[in-house]
Structure formats: C-alpha cells, structure tokens
Design goal:
two-stranded parallel ribbon, 16 helices, about 500 residues, 9-stranded mixed β-sheet
Length: about 500
C-alpha cells in the first residue's frame, strides 16, 4: 500500500476510534478519590440514582482496564466504583503477605475490598463485579458483608459452594476452556444436569454461566456480549429496566493503538533528516545464528547469581540483569562476528532531539491513549526507582537489538525476539518458583516489539539504530515498570 494512502487510512481510523471511545465516556463524570490509601474512581451520569457497583481488576491490571463494563453500567444509571488493588495501578503500597496462604495476601486484598464496599454502601446491597484474580477475592468478601449480585469475569475460586454465592453470573471467554468448565461446575452444584448457558435456581441461590464469543482472558474486558449480560443481570436483581448502548470500544481501542503505531513512520519522515547510512550488510546466517545463540544460552547462567531481589516488583531485579547481560553479550558477538558498528547520527544535539521525539510519541501520545482508554501507563513516584533500575538493563539490550535487526529481514527480526524469549524460558526452567512471573511478562515483551518496535524501526531507518535503541530501552523500562505489581515478600500470613 502506498505511503500516503496508508497514512490517510491511519488518520481516518484514529479519528473514528477516538469518536467511539469519547462517545462512550460522554455524559459520564469521573471522580477520583481515596479510601484510605486505595485509589477509587467513581463513574456516574447526571442524576444517577441506581445502586452502587464495586468493580475490581485482575492481576497486573488497573482501574482503567475495567472501564468497558464500568461505563456501560454508569450510563444505565448505576454508581460504579473502580479501584486499584495494592501493588497495582496508582496504589502506593505494594502487595504483601504470604501468597501461598488464604490468610496471607488474599486476606489483605479482601480487607482492602471490604473497606471500599463499606465506604460506598447505601440502602441497597452493593453489587460486585470482578475479573480474574479479583473473582476469588469478591466471592470470599461476599461471605462477610451484605452484598448484592455478583458478576465474575474469567472466574475461578475454591470458595464457591452449593449455597454461596447466592446470586452469581459467571462469564468466561470463548477461548478459556478451563474457566468455562469452572462455570459449569458452579452451576452443577445447584442443578446437577445444568450446562453452560443455563440459569439455575435452588431456593435463594440463582446462578448462570455463559461465555463471551471470540474472547480470551484480556479481550473479555471489552466484550459487548459480556457487558450486555452483566447489565441485564444487575437489572434483574434490582428490578430495574435501565438500558444503555454497548459500543464497540474494544475494536476502537485496537484501531487507535494501531493507528498511532502506523503514524510513527510518517512522523519520522516529517521531522527527521535522512542520515547518511551505509547499505545493508547483514552477516551470513551462521554468524547471525551465533550472535543470537550465545547470549540466549549464557545469559540465564550469568544473571541468576546476580539477582539480589532489591526491587519491590516481582522479578524486576532479575529481568533488568538479564536484559543487561543479554545486550552486552549480543554487542560483543556483533563486534566479533560482524565488524564495526553502524551507529547512525553522531551529532549529539540531533540524536537527542530524535530520541526525545520517539519518547514523546511512544510514551506521551501512545501512553496517553493507553492510559485513558485501556490500562494505567503513567507511574506513581514509588515506581520511578523501579523504572530507573530497569533502564540500566533495558538500554544496552535495546541498543544491541536495534543494531542486530537494523535493515534485517522480517524472519531475522522475529528470530531475534524468539531468542530473548527462549533465554527467559531457560531462566524459568532453572528457577521455576522464583522466576515464574517471567512467563506473564513474555506477552508484554511481545506486544512491546509489535508496537514500540515498529515505531523504533521507523525512526531507525532515518537516524540509525543507536537512536532507536536508546529510546526503546527507556520505553521498555517504562512499560515494564508500570505494568507489573509491586510486591513486598513476607514469610508470615499476617
């Protein structure tokens, strides 16, 4: 597709997406406050007099990730209260407690949730809606407080019994077979012959288990079917007939993110002068393979003894060390097997401006859109040291990566990313219990390369790989630093 046509198409998609996303927010007031240290955002429309709904996110989530459901309920007249769990989003306190004990970390999250529920409680029982990790927390809290209907997304909990919770809707993604099975199991505690899609009753206990088409664990948060079912379930309990449109905000969000990514190329051509760069001189397949294999295999063995666990984010210390060693080994192998480096611009002022432009686009523009419509992306003060520490490892890694894949074929670029994931996989195999959460980080790294890697490649074509590597290293550290929960490990169950 010709460049001008692709640019115009991206601008059109961005405009339509923004219209859909802003229309979903129009008429809804966002009120930020705190319950103790817990950040809470309340969504209400003018004159809202409906029941209160407390909305809780999943592991590594934030309030912003739940607004797809929150906005629909608020537009229907409910008063929606979304909050950040400890260690997540804008909450300043790390998660703590013993994660292996119900009376450890789970108990602390239950107490936090209970405080939010008690803060908003009114004449009618408070409805509860949660995703993933929050589903177990909400089920357990509902046994201790007066709660109304419960809507659970991608749920699993061993606290479900034949008579608790009494009023529960379970929605799993179509591509979550195990969680769909759990929903059926919860139904059959009440009616042994029940199946997915049924609504069953036994005395005061009413349950239904359904699936949201074409969704998995994350995309269920934007499911139009899931949101409509959640609203109908609450309306039934409270005897309301309030309706609200369910806009395609999921597609609009993806469209906006894709448009911002695509528009990085015309932006680079507009603001950057083409550097005098050499022709593509990629090494032979054997030298390229050697450059990938050595850091991929050696890094886990070199990094593990250096992991001192100082940062209050799960596996952040190890990841920073792993990235740094991987990057240094890759640079060494490139120098030995390839020859002199291609840096691009050497004028420090021009380099600084190019790096700043990519940071503004990748963090400012992309990050603002993500933070407003999808997930928290801007750090609290407590996370700044974490980002700084990650930069130490991420910058040399991304400088090496940018030089490695500069003007490379798509298959070589893919193989470079696979090498990092294989290396992280080796680390997990060496210390599964200590580094398990690297598995959760892997999708974030893949998304980073798909989005910010594309932006960096557009800038690198104009200014050289050094500019792209430095900027992308900072952005990668930022993305990892804000995405994953802060955690203060303890051995007790207090």
């Amino acid at each position: 597709m010709a460049r001008p046509v692709l640019t115009l198409l991206a601008l059109l998609v961005a405009a339509v997406s923004l219209y859909v996303l802003e229309a979903a927010r129009s008429g809804i007031t966002f009120t930020d406050r705190k319950v103790g240290d817990t950040p809470v955002t309340t969504l209400t429309r003018d004159g809202a007099d409906g029941p209160n709904v407390v909305v809780a996110h999943g592991f590594a989530g934030s309030r912003e990730m739940m607004q797809g459901y929150g906005l629909v309920l608020a537009r229907a007249g409910y008063r929606v209260h979304m909050f950040d769990f400890e260690g997540h989003g804008m909450h300043p306190d790390p998660m703590s407690g013993d994660v292996t004990q119900i009376e450890g970390t789970t108990r602390l999250l239950m107490d936090q949730t209970r405080r939010v529920i008690e803060d908003v409680a009114g004449e009618q029982p408070v409805a509860l809606l949660g995703h993933s990790m929050a589903t177990d927390v909400l089920i357990r809290v509902a046994a201790e407080v007066e709660a109304g209907p419960i809507v659970l997304l991608s749920a699993f909990s061993q606290a479900v019994t034949e008579d608790h919770p009494e009023d529960m809707l379970l929605i799993a993604g179509q591509w979550e077979p195990h969680l769909r099975e759990f929903g059926v199991t919860a139904l059959r505690m009440v009616a042994p012959e029940a199946d997915e899609g049924d609504t069953v009753r036994d005395g005061e206990v009413l349950r239904s288990a359904r699936y949201a088409p074409w969704t998995e664990h994350v995309s269920i948060l934007q499911s139009r079917v899931g949101r409509a079912d959640a609203l109908a379930w609450l309306n039934r309990y409270y005897g309301r007939d309030a309706t609200a449109s369910v806009p395609p905000t999921g597609w609009a969000f993806l469209g906006l993110m894709a448009a911002i990514t695509i528009l990085s190329a015309p932006l680079a051509r507009l603001i950057l002068t083409q550097a005098d760069l050499p022709a593509n001189q990629q090494p032979s397949i054997w030298r390229y393979t050697g450059t990938l294999a050595v850091p991929a295999i050696l890094t886990p063995f070199l990094a593990m003894p250096l992991d001192f666990g100082l940062l209050p984010v799960l596996v952040a210390d190890y990841l920073a060390i792993h990235l740094g060693i991987f990057g240094l080994l890759s640079l060494l192998m490139q120098r030995v097997l390839w020859g002199p480096f291609v840096l691009g611009w050497t004028n420090m002022r021009a380099m600084s401006l190019a790096i700043l432009a990519l940071l503004i686009w990748g963090i400012g523009v992309f990050g603002f859109a993500l933070d407003r419509y999808g997930a928290n992306f801007f750090p609290i003060v407590e996370r700044l040291p974490i980002i700084a520490a990650l930069i130490v490892g991420a910058v040399p890694f991304m400088v090496a990566d940018a030089h490695l894949v500069w003007k490379a074929s798509v298959w070589r670029r893919i193989s470079a990313r696979v090498a990092l994931l294989v290396s992280l996989g080796i680390a997990v195999a060496l210390d599964f219990e200590g580094l398990f959460f690297l598995i959760i980080i892997a999708p974030v790294i893949v998304l980073f390369f798909l989005v910010h890697g594309t932006m960096g490649r557009a800038f690198g074509k104009r200014a050289g790989p050094l500019v792209a590597g430095i900027a992308l290293g900072i952005i990668l550290a930022w993305a990892l630093g804000v995405s994953f929960p802060m955690f203060e490990a303890t051995g007790d169950s207090a």
